[in-house]
Amino acid sequence: MSRLLVTGAAGFIGANFVRYWLQQHPNDHIVVVDSLTYAGNPHNLDGLLDKSCLLERVDINNTDRVMELLREHQLNTVVHFAAESHVDRSIEGPDVFIEANVLGTHSLLKAARQVWQVEAQALDAHRFHHVSTDEVYGTLSAEDPAFTEKTPYAPNSPYSASKASSDFLVRAYHHTYGLNVTTSNCSNNYGPYHFPEKLIPLTIINILHGKGLPIYGDGKNIRDWLYVEDHARGIELVLQKGQIGETYNIGGVNEWANIDIVNLLCELMDKRFAANISLHTNYPDCPAAKGQACSTLIEYVTDRAGHDFRYAIDTTFIREELGYEPAVTFEVGIERTVDWYLNNERWWQSVLDGSYRKA
Ligand code: NAD
Ligand code: DAU
User: Fold this and answer.
1) How would you write 130-158 as a 3-class SS string?
2) What are the residues facing 57 on neighbouring strands?
3) Which residue, by CA, sits nearest to atom 7 of ligand 2?
4) Distance of CA 87 from the midpoint of ligand 2 (Å)
5) Strand 255-257 relative to strand 222-227: parallel, antiparallel, unpaired?
6) Is 205 exposed, middle or buried, given 0-12, 13-18 or 19+ CB atoms closer than 10 A?
7) What tens digit of pLDDT does each residue of 129-142 get?
8) Beta-carbon-side half-sphere exposure of residue 229 (alpha carbons within 13 Å)
9) Helix, strand, or coil here: 329?
10) Is 56 labeled as catalytic in the residue annotation?
11) How far apart are CA 325 and CA 227, in angstroms?
12) Residue 309 CA to ligand 2 centre (angstroms)
């Protein structure tokens, strides 16, 4: 039985991870540490919180409180998701990215080292798993081979630079102090509870409201999309079978240009409106309710500053070492995601009107 401290699990991926983990390991004990920034929503954990899965509203920079939680609950595993995660926000205001992603990760590492290595006198059975991103590797051209674990770091945005810094701190705590660490660098996730500032949920919700679909630049930038539960499955494998000190890339081998993703979402929504008349009543501003194609909402807008052209993950290492394969195809995952947003309007309305922050 594991006893996990999961940081940032009121956010998108962390919440999906906890949901997945408790399905697979129902007897485990989890303490979620989340400061509930704008991206943290306790409702993401609805149905999960009880005496063996607690949510503590704590900033990861509060080293003392994190140490207390590690001791009090005898936690032996950290799975570290907490971060500022949106590239556009990092361009507008980088400071909080340094505080959360760099200083926050260092604070957690210090807490784990103090409790597991100093006070517990070299507790063997501990693990610090750090969740990172493919963006640390920089950008690819259309012809470049995909990122491997050996690709040199070349972060281009304040967000990716802060994540790269945190990766290096995790590495240093292993090499210098012998902390049992693993790191995973994952490609773009999509699925339930994805905050509607990111491309896929923003597109789905704007279509329903008949609002413009902003495409940065020419829309040809490429991302490698992975269903969020497959990310959780990859982290589970790394925790169970990964080598201490190792880094694993996780990806969907599923590259899409942004404009193609947006057109696909428009087509999926056209079909749902054609099949379900009640959607016309619920969303009268959607073009599909007026007999028009949803793609008429597409608007090309000013490009993101320093916009990385392409990300793609080479999954050979995690596949060969740990037997990892994504289980959810993109065709299934994207339909599931569209339907989740259609069936969970209460969730995203409370995000749009801000009431989720009073939860
Ligand atoms: P998110 O923005 O949805 O959630 C982040 C969570 O961290 C929120 O609940 C927020 O309240 C919390 N948080 C932020 N600062 C904190 C602090 N100082 N102390 C405690 N909690 C804090 O992010 P996400 O998309 O779920 O990403 C989770 C992790 O996965 C991040 O580390 C991100 O870099 C990484 N990642 C994300 C993707 C992706 O496609 N979204 C892909 C690869 C890696
Ligand atoms: O690659 C992993 C990364 O994926 C994670 O580390 C980040 O935390 C996560 O936010 C995500 O970053 P991206 O910048 O790739 O995701 P985003 O959804 O913001 O944008 C996806 C692509 O779509 C990107 O090329 C920018 C573009 N875009 C985005 C928005 C929000 C648009 O064209 N229009 C938009 O309105």
Assistant:
1) EEEEHHHHCCCCCCCCCECCCCCCCCCCH
2) 34
3) 85
4) 7
5) antiparallel
6) middle
7) 999 999 999 999 99
8) 16
9) coil
10) no
11) 12
12) 11
Report whether residue 334 contacts ligand 2, using a CB cutoff of 6 Å: no
Model confidence at 267, pLDDT cuts 50, 70, 90, reads very high
pTM: 0.98
Structure confidence at residue 155 (pLDDT) = 98
pLDDT digits (tens, 9 = 90+) for 42-83: 999 999 999 999 999 999 999 999 999 999 999 999 999 999
Q: Interhelix angle for 345-352 vs 199-209, to 10°?
A: 90
From the CA of 86, the nearest ligand is 2
Q: Quick one: which atom of ligand 2 is closest to the CA of 189?
A: 4
For residues 177-195, give the mean pLDDT. 98
Unique residue bearing structure tokens 């413009």: 212
When pLDDT is cut at 50, 70 and 90, the band that residue 124 belongs to is confident
Q: 34 CA to middle of ligand 2, Å?
A: 23
Selecting among 59, 135, 236, 270, the annotated active-site residue is 135
Sign for the CA dihedral angle at 324, 127, 60, 71 comes to positive
Task: Tell me which residues have their CB closer than 6 angstroms to ligand 1.
Answer: 7-8, 10-14, 34-37, 39-40, 59-61, 81-85, 100, 104, 131, 133, 163, 186, 188-189, 195
Mean predicted confidence (pLDDT) in 186-211 = 98
Query: Which of 123 and 279 is assigned the larger pLDDT?
Result: 279
Residue 123 has pLDDT above 70, yes or no: no
Does residue 197 carry a catalytic annotation?
A: no
Task: State the burial class of residue 185 (Cβ atoms within 10 Å of its Cβ: 0-12, 13-18, 19+).
Answer: buried
Domain ranges of the chain: 3-195+225-252+310-330
Ligand 1 center to residue 318 CA distance, Å? 22
Q: Is 159 an annotated catalytic residue?
A: yes
- Reading the block at residue 269, the tokens are 């929504």
Look up the CATH number of domain 3-195+225-252+310-330: 3.40.50.720
Ligand 2 atom with the smallest distance to the CA of 217 is: 33
